[in-house]
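Form 7-S
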Amino acid sequence: MMKRSISLLAFFFLTCCAATAQTSRSGIAPDGAEDIPISRMDVDFLYLAASRAMEDDNAPLAIGFLKAIAEKDAEAVLPRLQLAEILLQNGRAAEAREPVQQLLDMPELSVEDRNSVRMFQVQILILDNKAEQAIHNLQAILHDAPDTYPARLMLIRLLTAGKHYEDAHQAIAEGLQSGEHPQLYHIQAQLFIHEGALDKAEQALNTLIKLEPDESGPALMLSQLALRQGKPVKAENVLRHHLAGHPDALGVSNALGRMLVEQKRGAEAIAVYEDIAERTGGNVDVLTALGLLHYQQGDYDKAADTFRRVLKEHDDPRARFYLAACFESLGQGEKAKDIYQRIKSSDENFAEAQLRMAAMDLRADRTDAALVTLRQLIRSEPKMAGAYTVLSAALMRQKAYKELLSETEPALSLDDVQVQLLFNRAAAFEGLKQYNEAANQIKKLFTLEPDNIEALNFLGYLYAEQGVRLDEAEQLIRRALKERPDNGYYLDSLAWVHYQRAEYDKALTVQRQAIDHVPNDPVMHEHLGDILWKNGQTEQARSTWRDAIKLGHEDSRSMQNKIDKGM
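Output:
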């Protein structure tokens, strides 16, 4: 058998050995010196070269030397063990079979080495997708050596992967009899969670926390388990308890911060992330999260300051986008637009920046510029739901109802079609007097937001305008008024239901309430004039129609005709 000690002479030749193995077998080394073929190298020399190659993570070179040793020394155990291990690590299971079998055929192999070789056999079976046979071999190893922890761990993982859950639990229990291995409790907890046995999972995690009190993983798992059990207070307490003893556990702090964000406890979340930022010396990811929290809380000045800190340390596209969004929210449109324009097309927030600039143009009555941006954006991002919504608003402003309907039609097939788009499409159909289609759009909207009060009022008004389904119209409008009893437009809709029923006294009372809340709407003054006329108050009606013209009624000719000829 090969000696495991290496002679000093062999060590002297080590540096030339690595070069020797990488040359061809021509007999000439790269520097012109005479090459020594591997076949003529001493076994000790080969082993030292193999060891050096393994230290340098040069697997191909190490494999070459170890194979040479195996050819020279039929009793070499350690080189074969190392050869099999390296081959398996590099996915070369077919080549590993030979040294593994050679080792198993050695009658004098120690129990420890034999178990190592049997584990190599198991790895080969796993790589060959022979999980059941691998399980059988592992059970045989554990029968002979019950304390072989790596074999038990691999057996449990294979049983779990194969959904042999009862056998996995049995293997875990047998493993825990020989010692409280933390990893076994970890797997046990995961298995119980998978099976829905949450109380048992909690017991396993509590034991794991006692065994590894300084580890964050068990506390994080227990907190998530408490959330799954519907116990958010307990989940929070687990994290805070761990942080009390381990204030530097950043993963736990981060989990607590996320939990507070999800519970809409922004101020507390900000305090947590400020602490993490201080501990990490201003970590870019932590500062970005902190900036987003300030932004969500509406503290745009603090958010802007935080994003500036990020950008001083790192050219972060997301921080740049949200800095622009802060300026936009602070009413500093030119600053915001300047930053949005500098966001690169390769950045993840480029499309959103383009959309925001289009919305800014629309708010500034630059509708044509907004439309150019939006149409280009939709061509490049045809699945961007928000772009269709803003496009519909721009076209609605131009009363381009047909273009609105045709250009936003593709958005209806998107998974995230937006409520406002459906509302704008309904308004476009209503503008074209296609009332049934308008109602259909609102009904689609209700599948997303059944209690959308704007839509409730709009559908009720559509029915009232047509004089159909008036009882249903009143119910819809009153549902909206229940949420906003002082909304003048909703009152106008209700007044029009009474008008269509010829309940002119009721209509007049409600319409006057509507105008008290919205005194400058020309259409509402037209409605009041119509109701006054039906109530026999003809001169007051004509005066009210004149007010509608003064307020900018879009159809002044129709108003003048009513003034001249009545209804």
